[in-house]
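## tool: complex_structure
## caller: assistant
## args:
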Amino acid sequence: MIGSVGPSSDPARTIVEFCRFARERGLSAGVQETLGALQAAAALGVGNEEELKFGLRSILCSSKDEWQLFEECFKTFRGRSAPEPSTNRPTRPRKELTSRVSGRNPTSLISPSSGDDVSSEEGGGQAVTGASARERLTKSDLSTLSHSDMATLERIAFRLFKQMSRRLARRRRSGPRGHVDLRKTIRRNISRGGEPMNLRYRERKPRPHRLVTLLDISGSMSPYSLFLVKFLYALQKHFRHVDTFLFSTGLVEITNLFRAQRLQDALQALSQQPAGWSGGTSIGGSLREFNQFHRRKLRSSDTLFVILSDGWDTGDPGVLAAELVAVKRRVRRLIWLNPLLGSKDYQPIASGMRAALPHIDVFAPAHNLESLLTLEKHL
Amino acid sequence: MGASRTIPSGAGNQDVDAIVSEFERLGYVTDRSLATAIYLVTKLRKPILIEGHAGLGKTEVAKVLASFLGTRLIRLQCYEGLDVSSAVYEWNYQKQLLAIKIEEGSDTTVEEKERHVFSRKFLLERPLLQSILVEDASPVLLIDEIDRADEAFEAFLLELLSDYQITIPEMGTIHATHVPYVVLTSNRSRDLGDALKRRCLYQWIDYPSLEKEMKIVRTRLPGIEEELARQVVRYVQSVRQLNLSKPPGVAETLDCAEALLALGKPQLDQEAIEQTLGFISKSFEDGAKIRSAGVGNIISQSTGGI
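## result:
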């Protein structure tokens, strides 16, 4: 029984201690929840441990993952002899982010030039780079850039991405006039005996697209993937609904990491993900995984589905084609951005790419900044 | 409160037991985990958020809870683009226009006219307003598939769930006389806001164990042979292991068993599986997977060990 296990014999106190214990381990057990837990315990009594556990669980958790976390917390709390936190801390790695920056590729994600210092440099960037240099940079292939060029390019890119999304937002707002708003019309015209003289309109609510992106981070994409991650971050800020995934041999959802307010935070969180950076590729398999678990995120009326990949697939092209068909059926537009398309003599002959082509609405390059910016017209 | 008569009082145990057995009498097989949460809903008057895969009886919880409490069920089905005028209230414009026309000749003042056309008579009550206006006892308010509505609506809902009041500019603020029991369900197609989640009790419904599913089949289809029920449940449970894009829920098990009863099949053979495949898999790809996994194997699994 939980009341007898804790260091104190007062059940209320034990409950409070348990809540604190759970909070330390990542459950959202604030003051509200602690009060709720006490109420629940009062209602259930402490006589039956199982019920008490179920009750506390329904109060302290708010997702399936937290259920599992709760299970461990409860067990540890019951069996603990000496309070020793941080033995296993399954979720919420947030707090330890800054201290643990390791790994090969992910670390380089956090280049010193990125992040909030970029946004504060809106006006200043111009002075550093002349117009012609800018021209050159936006057109050159990302894989050929030197480190310092890359930094400059990122500054430019961030600004341009912002402009692009501002344009997108504007475009969405204008449009055909909405329906007559009967409610307002009546209100306005009561003094004229309800004759609808002045019509009031209800503006059509902007109906933003949903954006689902899958970014290939396998080895062959590594010259591009870091920059593309930043592109995606900029892009997603301006859709009401975004789901972002990385894939190589498997699929990893990073939507939540990308919600971070600052790019820096997002990238740092990303570098902690065991996403198989620079590994092999199974596009078909990853898409299958997507269709299996995330299909509900697609709505045929307004979803843009963007795949960023070079199409080098080690899997079965048949699977890739079949899964693409399944995706295609549920989206408004299927866009494939391929960095290799930038080189003049590229032919989409990789078996995966060839299998995919018939099902793609827009097939466009993504090898330099300019090509990414032209993506705007498809959004 | 009107409903408190029916809620068992006293500490713990028997009350949760009572919920388990009473729910079962009403045709809903539950476990102690869910029953405890339901008990807390009635006791603490907090909303409950139920998540889980499709077809596991999330919506059913609200229905059974309503009959358990002997109260009304008010249901709001969420969808993308759900707005206040279809969830809360709307004025009956046509009727208002007519009323204004009719009163044209009379010498009532503009203010009186206004008060008249904005009275309750002209108000179309939608589910959320209904749940607040119920006069005799707390109703059960089911907000189904909240994950399908957008964030704006979620924010509105949060406001409603904290104060249980609705403001209509033309009429003023309406307070709930009886705070409803609120059940929210979600299929997890998107993450809900933290604020809303924290306001609710949480319950995850997983696929049932073999025993529980057997019990459900027996409860819902009392006429079924024990043997056939066991075969169907085993069959569906092994199909769930197949990595389908849409694994069958309990609803599918029941449909399949019911179909077999209707077809007069004494047992689940190759032919029966083929005939009822449409109940188990809802897409062509899944059906093909079930077939290629070897229907025979599944049968031998589901008939074996009896």
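## assistant note: Residues 210-378 of chain A form a domain with the Rossmann fold fold (CATH 3.40.50.410). The first strand of chain A starts at residue 210 and ends at 216. Handing back to user.
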